[in-house]
Amino acid sequence: MKAISKNYIHAFMWTGALLLCASLMACSSDSTIWEEDSYEGVPMQFSQAAISNPVSRSSSTNYLTQGFLVSCWKGYNTDKQFITMDKYEVKYQSIPWDNLSKWDYVGSTSEGYYQSQIERYWDISAFPYRFYAITPCPSAADIANFTLSDERLVIPTSVAFAYQTCTNGVLTAGAEPYMPAEVECIDGSNVNDFDLLTGNTIQKDRTMNGATTDYERYVALPFHHFTSKVRFAVYNNYRKETPNNFYLNNVKVRVVSDNFVTGGNGYEANLKISDMLNGTFTETTKAATEEQKILLQTDDSKQGNLNTAIDREHVYFCECPNGMLQIPQHGVRMTVSFDVCGLDYENDFTSPDGSIVYDKATKTIHYIDIPIKDTKTNMEYFHWESNNIYTYVIKITEFYPLSIDFSAELTPWTDVYGNIETNLEK
């Protein structure tokens, strides 16, 4: 039993054995003593949060060390609802001489925290618990500008998100400054926690990446993306004999629809009617020039081998296999241009609409502004939702007359996750 001040001796004697809670049996009432953290039980701890390195930071930067900001309620959406963590800073602490790495949230302003934060204990009578979090944790000076309540998430407009473009495999900086997590713990079991942003039960492994713990109850926070990604792949199943020097270059993908969003400042989500990924950017920036609408381009120094790119498993990803970060939005329409070199036709020719031009001297076919259109759904306006990767696959079956199948493949943005390596024990 932890020591308590004289001011609480009478309260302690009054509650007596009620405060001697074992295992998960933390006290259900929020007495002054409970608020002062004056009994032993099972403390609330964090471990194994899954996260992706944002594209705006170098690969050598460990995003995890920047911690996260979390709010927590017990008895969520019941008459017992009570906030136990109100925008708590959770810091990643690594102490090599103790062989210790852990998440820590207990401390005071004198220790560098935004506010005084006490250790919280599980209350078995007050499930479900609800956790809302964003990572990295904002600086102490900025936390007051963020709202992380049971009703709203507000990221201030001083925070900027930005799209990416790619030229010859080199990405522009882009920006994904924050990512959210939203978890519900429905009972006292570690195996039933629920990721509200994916609808999946959270898988926990006590031995994964050193995230071992002897605690009977801890929280894993899977972080996800406010942004989306797009990428473009090309392959062919040309049935005729092909030359040895048969390649594709000068690829250009550009947006041709209006109001294309390239950036967003601030973010708001109504958590009473939706989740953290289904909010809106407070302010948006739209492409002001046609140059800003070019998502991807290569020149003749980058060649995709069409003798190798012959099926879906061996596509040419146009020098950008991991894709480009984008601002989620609706109604995006795009075209693609590219050159195919090596095919030997008898004469120069130009298609009636001018979109295909063959140059006999260089054995090059120029394809100009071919609309990207899903041939299965007949869709040419595309929607990009947060936390998803969109892969546009261009399949060429005949070069002249041109026969292309376009398909848009949707993948949840999970393949880029890693795991925090933490140990909760000292």
Tell me about this structure:
The chain has helices at 9-15, 32-35; strands at 50-51, 68-74, 82-95, 100-104, 129-135, 147-148, 152-162, 166-167, 170-171, 179-185, 194-195, 200-201, 228-236, 247-255, 261-270, 280-286, 294-297, 304-305, 324-326, 329-332, 334-341, 349-350, 356-359, 364-371, 382-384, 388-399, 402-412, 418-419. It is an all-beta fold.
How do you describe this structure in short?
By secondary structure, this protein is mostly beta strands. The chain has helices at 9-15, 32-35, and strands at 50-51, 68-74, 82-95, 100-104, 129-135, 147-148, 152-162, 166-167, 170-171, 179-185, 194-195, 200-201, 228-236, 247-255, 261-270, 280-286, 294-297, 304-305, 324-326, 329-332, 334-341, 349-350, 356-359, 364-371, 382-384, 388-399, 402-412, 418-419.
Name the structural class: mainly beta
Helix count equals: 2
- Tell me the radius of gyration: 27 Å
What kind of assembly state do the chains in view correspond to?
Answer: single chain
* Share of residues in helices: under 10%
Global morphology: elongated
Distance between the termini: 19 Å
Taking pLDDT < 50 over at least 5 consecutive residues as the criterion, the unreliable ranges are: 1-39, 51-62, 208-212, 415-426
Question: N-to-C SSE series?
Answer: HHEEEEEEEEEEEEEEEEEEEEEEEEEEEE
